[in-house]
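Consortium newsletter contribution from the modelling node. Members have asked for a concrete example of what our holo predictions look like. Here is one, prepared for the adenosine monophosphate complex that several groups have been discussing at recent meetings.
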Amino acid sequence: MKIQHMLDQKGHDVHAISRRSTMEQAVGVLGEKNIGAVVVTDDDGAVCGILSERDVVRHMSRSGAGILSSSVDEYMTKNVVTCGLDGDLQDIMQIMSTRRIRHLPVVEDGKLTGIVSIGDVVKRKIELAEKEAESLKQYIAAG
Ligand code: AMP
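And here is the predicted structure:
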């Protein structure tokens, strides 16, 4: 299944914040939107970082709640791994498992156009497995 198709089904909305946001604002977005990672963009809308709940927990456990007043720029991951609309589910699973990341922003022509999480991947895999099982049942029943 192509990423384009996945996004057509789940939507292209991405919760993103500016690199000038504070960690407190970033944590606010993670909490309010009930998401595991927020994409960080620069002034022209290009992806320049990602901050996941793991980053927040890791840095707060080391440095305490004082980090909340710092800029998100200081704590986000800057080398963001992204994928394009042309990629497929298999590519994404490979990237997520080898890189140990659970979120992949989708970038097309330099523009952020969606995000795929490990939850989306699992959902699609279950749907595909169910479809396959149904086709097999019909094939067997048809004799
Ligand atoms: P996650 O699995 O999304 O909670 O992220 C685990 C770690 O990988 C955190 O340090 C994130 O900032 C980082 N991370 C998450 N997604 C990406 C991504 N697409 N590219 C680069 N780093 C990422």
